[in-house]
Structure formats: structure tokens, C-alpha cells
């Protein structure tokens, strides 16, 4: 339900959970498209410091604007969730304000731009008994959960090595000035280039890997700016590569760039073959198993992988828009379900902190950082029952 003025709170809570959005930019439209397939969730208010942008967004989606952050927070009750969809530089400040006001927070990536800030947010949420969850939530999606289940069931045997790619093509030559969201927000290229593809995108596969194998123990990374002529370039890395050593599990290599040709594959290489997903940004992407065998003295993987499917219906799907076909509401919906059912959220505060530390270690690696020994930790995720 993408509307509601908060006049009948008991009725809203009986029907389902409530969320409020801070930040009405490009990504906010993707969230509203996703909430459209979750009628059990009510969007009670939205706020943006740009009043014109907020008005256009609110009018397009039929939601109630709040003139200030304080006004938005005043509409919330215990058990509501705030979505922080602001620019990354504002994440720490907004997250802290929401937590101090006593509200659960779902934050777009990254959780904060510095590890000390992320740790402070984690500690504050823990002290207040609040959930602090970090995007992306695609780890709860069908493709990720089917892959997670296949790894746990040993479909490919013992996993030994993972290759994960998040290359988006030569983005500076793309017509990004023409990219607009449904409500008319331009793609924020200045922020995207200033923040960098590692902080923006690494989480899509890092969250899958942490869910599958648990905490990373050591990160050996390198990052560089290989396209210095981008509009508004500030020296932020636009390429990174990291080798991840898990406390228990295989070794993984993750690459991010906005220079190399589009490649969003993840391959889990095991004793008996390879599990592969070709697209991180599609919840319904095929998970395939390529069995390894010997043919006439030649070792090879089967050229036609066997598709692995969920055992039951998974979650509501959202059609493709732009580069993504993802249900961006899965994270907030999971938080609300956990609150309603009195259970732990599958996206934990510890996972949010750990994901942030790994991502920042890769982003800040440069050419000579060497190994980063992780200070945070978290538990792996149980696969969904339908997977």
C-alpha cells in the first residue's frame, strides 16, 4: 500500500508494517516500485531536503511528504522502519538521527563512509535494541537463496574457489545524462563517480558470499582510478579487485569496475563442478550447475548446466527497470516480518557492520595497503525454506 497519512495507526499495523523514506532521488523510485507488490506494507511518509524533488516524487507515487526530518520522525511509532536513501555522505548523520529517535533503520549502501562511523552506529543500535540493516537486500532474493541452498547441500561438492564479477561496462561513455527515474530524478552521476563503484556495488556479491560462508577473516585488495577523465572525477577508485579469505570456507576473488565490459557472473567452483549465476541484479536469474567430467582424456565442465530451481514459491517479483530486475523491498519487508513474528532478522546488525568493513577495506586498498585483518564478524545465513 503506497499511501497513508498515519491517521489510523492500529489499522495500519493490523494489515502490515509501516515504513518511511528519507531521500527521494533516483533509487527511491525503485523502492516504491517494489513496495507496490507488497500491499501489506504502508509507506506513511517521505522526506527530501530538496522540496521540489520531494513534491514530484510524492505526487508521482501518491505518498505523503514531510517538510522536515523531524516532521517525518514524529509520524513514526515503535515498530516502524525508516529507509535511509540519501546521498552516501549523509548516511551516518541520518542513520544516527533515526536511531537516536528510537527507530529501526534500513540504509542504502554504504552504511557509513568511515569504519569508525559504522562502528558507532552499530554500537548505538545495539544499545537501543534496534535493527540497523544495510542494503543490498538481493541476498534475500531467489537467485541468491537458491545458490546458497545449493552450496549448503553440496551440489558442486566442497567449494574451493569463488570468482565474482561486478563490471558494468565503460560507464563514462554511456548516455548517463539521459538516465531518469520514473518520477523524473536524474541518475546522480556526480555522486556515483565520487563514491565509486566499489562502495556502490561490491555489496551485491559480498552479501551473498558472507551469507554463504560466514565472516571474512582477511582481505587482500587493490584499487585504482583508471578513468581519471570522468565528469566530476575526484580520484575515487573506479576499479578494485580483492581476494577474500574466509574464517571457514573457500577463497573468493571479487572484481568491481566501470571500465571493463559488462560481466555480473558469480561462479562457485567445487570438487564436482561449478555453480554459476550470470546476473547479480536479477532476483530471477538462473542458477546452474555445470558437472565436471572426463571425456577422451580431457577434463571439462558440462557445456549445458542443469538449472536449479526453488522448491516452492519464493517472493514477489518486480519487472525489469533499467539495469535491474530486483525487489528492493525485500530487506525492509524482512525487518517488518521479524518484528511482527518476534524473531531475529535474517539481515543482522553484525552483518551490516561486517559488510561495511570488507567494502571499505577494498575501496581504500590502493596499490600498497597489503592485507586487512578484519575486526568485525557475523554469522552465516540460513537458506530460505523455499530455496
From TrEMBL:
Every GFO/IDH/MocA-like oxidoreductase domain range: 150-275
Boundaries of every Gfo/Idh/MocA-like oxidoreductase N-terminal domain copy: 18-132
GO molecular function, one term: nucleotide binding
Pfam families on file: GFO_IDH_MocA (PF01408), GFO_IDH_MocA_C3 (PF22725)
Residues of the signal peptide: none
Protein name as annotated: Predicted dehydrogenase
